[in-house]
Amino acid sequence: MPGLEKVVMLRMIKRTVLHLAKWLGLFGLARRITRRKLRILAYHGFASDDEAAFRPGLFMRPETFRRRLAHLARSRYPVLPLGEALELLGEDRLPDRTVVITVDDGFYGFYRNALAMLGERRFAATVYVTSYYCRHPGPVFRLAVQYMFWRASGRPVELDGLGIEGLPGGVLRRAREVDEAMWTVIRHGETACDEPGRHELAEALGGCLGVDYDQIRRRRILDLMRAEELRELPGAGIDIQLHTHRHVLPDDEAGVRREIAENRSYLVGLLGRPAQHFCYPSGIWSRAQWPWLEGAGLVSAVTCDPGLCAPSTPRFALPRFLDGENISQIEFEAELAGFLELLRAARSRMMRSKRRADFQSAAMTD
Q1: Where is 92: in which H helix or E strand?
Q2: Are 4 and 72 in the same domain?
Q3: Backbone phi, psi, residue 77, to 5°
Q4: Residues 75, 80: Cα–Cα separation, whole Å
Q5: Which of 81, 96, 174, 242 could cross-link with 35 by S-S, CB 3.0 to 4.6 Å?
Q6: In this structure, is residue 79 part of a structural domain?
Q7: Residue closest to 186 by CA, chosen among 223, 155, 159
Q8: How far apart are CA 12 and CA 366, in angstroms?
Q9: How far apart are the first and last CA of the chain?
Q10: Predicted pLDDT of residue 5
Q11: Closest by alpha carbon to 38, among 70, 83, 68, 71?
């Protein structure tokens, strides 16, 4: 069976099993077992055009988000602001099945497509904003390049006119060649160009690929929110917190502090509110960073690792459920109920038991 067909079949089987588990009442049982744990949901962009088809794990259609919020309201999950929820969790006073909604990066689509939905439900949310593209309005360069190549997929590609060293000449037809060319363009833009130069390169690339880059700019489908839009959010019950300035967390303490300081300087200067909660860029983190984060005045950091939060969960390694257009409604409900968390815990126990058994068997044969 080809790999893609196998993946599709496995997903269908998983969803069928989850529907059966829900029908048998296992979701309700899981909710009771995990009721004292905090559920943190994570979102990124909200599509205005075809972004959800381009990156279904990164962008969600507004109608899908509306269904998610309706389920939260219908199932009576309390939705609390992040800071309040973490305080109550630490005191073991968290209301049963509490949910926190978080949104990463600060895409314009949140302001355009999701903000009003949250307001209709009176749901609080935290938006972790990476500030470089708020200060420099325009499409996120890397995403714009990837999006334009995606739009041109299936067509022969010729990039001789870009004049970038290392780009293969002639017409590119094989997917691997096109992918390598795309990353060559991205690396060149990110290392050899300033921001105006990146826009010029993206416009030229659009001409080569037959994709209208100016339309991408006008529609703002890959833009972050601008200063005037960010200023509106606190009045709508949205908390703005830290996500680094350039969406990167360096490996050294000085670099980490610099990224957080630039991010905080922009956001606090813009909003006049404290910023002490953090989201790891791309979900990449290590324990070695925790003292650096604490030294930078942070009190929490969220990951992209799945799971629910207990009072004992380290505050600089808070797990979240990464929701997107690639997640079905039944998978969302299973995660929210805690059913998938219980399955992960059972699988982890089985793996530990197997490792112990393997170790004992090896010891007996020595």
Answers
A1: none
A2: no
A3: -85, 120
A4: 15
A5: 96
A6: yes
A7: 159
A8: 45
A9: 42
A10: 79
A11: 83
